[in-house]
Structures are given as C-alpha cells and as structure tokens.
Design brief:
Blueprint lengths: L1 E4 L6 H12 L3 E3 L8 H14 L2 H9 L4 E4 L16 E6 L2 H14 L7 H8 L4 H5 L7 H5 L10 E4 L3 H12 L27 H10 L1 H15 L3
Parallel strand pairs: 1-3, 1-4, 2-3, 4-5
C-alpha cells in the first residue's frame, strides 16, 4: 500500500492524476480534515491512530485499497510503518515559492470547505507579508509532520523537479517503463517565473529565516534526491 501525503501547493493535485490513472477505484482519498485547524487535525490523528488496528488495515486490503492520498497528518497511519509492503511518500516545494503560491491560491478561490484561517485571511485582507510571516503558516511542513519523522518517507518528490521525479517514482514504485504525461493542476494562470524573484529582498530574507525548519526539511529532500538509487 502507498500512503501519499499531499502538502498544499506542492504538486499533489497533479500527482493525484497519476495515482488515479494507475490505481483507479483502488485509490482512497483522505481529505476529510481539510476544513480543520492543525490543532483539530492533531487530535483526530491521535484518535485515528488508536483505531487503526490490524483488523482495520486488513479491511482496507479486503476492500482493495492500494493507495491513500490526501491532506492528512501521516501520524494517522504510523502503525503501517511496521508493514514492509507499505510505502510512505510526499512532495515538498521550495518553501517561499509554496507559501506565496498558497497565498494567491486562497485569494482566487472560494469554497464552502474554507478553513477558519482561509476565511480570516480573506475577510481581514491579509497582505502577502502578513500571510508569509504569520504563526499560523509558519513551517507548515513541520506541522504536517507532527510526531512523524521525515526519515519515514520512502520517497520525497521535489516539486521543482516534478517531471523528473514523477518518472522516477512511476518506474520504481509503479513499474512503468515508458515516459508519462500528467496534466498540471491548480497552477496560477497569472504567474510566470519564480514568485521569489518578484518580492522585496528583505522580505525574502525574513521569510527564509521565519521558516527555517521547513527549509531544513526541503534541503533534506534535495539531499535525498541526490542519493537516489
């Protein structure tokens, strides 16, 4: 089984197209906690982990579930770390690029499933700087990896190398031998180039310092990419 954590604005929606194409009905989406705060997600993850017995895992397999993909805390599924056939994967994007992309995505979308934070950002008219330097958005990768070591991931794709890493993943874990074509989803139609090239340099420095833990995780992913077999 593949457990695929979808971090916001890091290519997960596009990657899901590959998983859906490959697994079909064997793909289970886990987006139930989208409207919830990270505090509530943490509480739910603890509850889910306690319920995730070997019987429930067997139930997934009997239902033919071969892949779970979504915006969840991987702690929920940590019991599956003991299953050698389970593969944990995720994608990470350069943190400043991800943050700014996230901000503009929220600015141009409205959804009944808005989180309370999304609603707050829009209604209070947060600036890009306020968003990027808010405690709520600080080190979001670290928030997702609550009580779950990054070392547990068998594969971490790097969004800046999306096509290359998708091909590597498909060949190693899905048995593909040919090239693949995946439509890119949820891209800002008004953006070309790097977001970080378009903001004040002092703000860029402040963002990198404020999100230093996420940069540590991103650099870990880059190092892991270099050492792939």
């Amino acid at each position: 089984m593949i457990i695929s954590m979808h971090t916001p604005k890091a290519g997960g929606s596009s990657f899901k197209q590959l998983l859906r194409k490959h697994y079909g009905l064997s793909l289970k989406g886990d987006y139930k906690d989208i409207p919830k705060s990270f505090e509530d997600r943490t509480k739910d993850a603890i509850k889910f982990d306690k319920r995730l017995s070997s019987l429930k895992i067997l139930g997934y397999k009997m239902l033919g579930v071969k892949c779970i993909h979504g915006h969840f805390l991987p702690y929920k599924y940590k019991k599956l770390l003991d299953d050698e056939s389970t593969i944990f994967i995720t994608w990470l994007r350069e943190p400043t690029e991800r943050l700014i992309s996230h901000y503009y995505y929220w600015q141009r979308t409205s959804d009944k499933r808005w989180t309370s934070l999304h609603k707050k950002v829009i209604e209070e008219g947060w600036s890009l700087e306020e968003f990027c330097l808010s405690e709520e958005m600080r080190n979001i990768y670290g928030k997702y990896l609550w009580n779950f070591s990054v070392d547990n991931f068998d594969f971490i794709g790097v969004t800046e190398y999306f096509e290359e890493d998708v091909l590597f993943f498909a060949r190693k874990y899905l048995g593909y031998s040919d090239s693949i074509n995946i439509p890119i989803k949820n891209v800002n139609p008004n953006n070309t180039g790097l977001y970080s090239d378009k903001i004040d340099k002092e703000l860029l420095i402040a963002i990198k310092d404020f999100h230093s833990k996420d940069y540590d995780l991103y650099n870990y992913a880059l190092d892991k990419k270099k050492n792939r077999m």
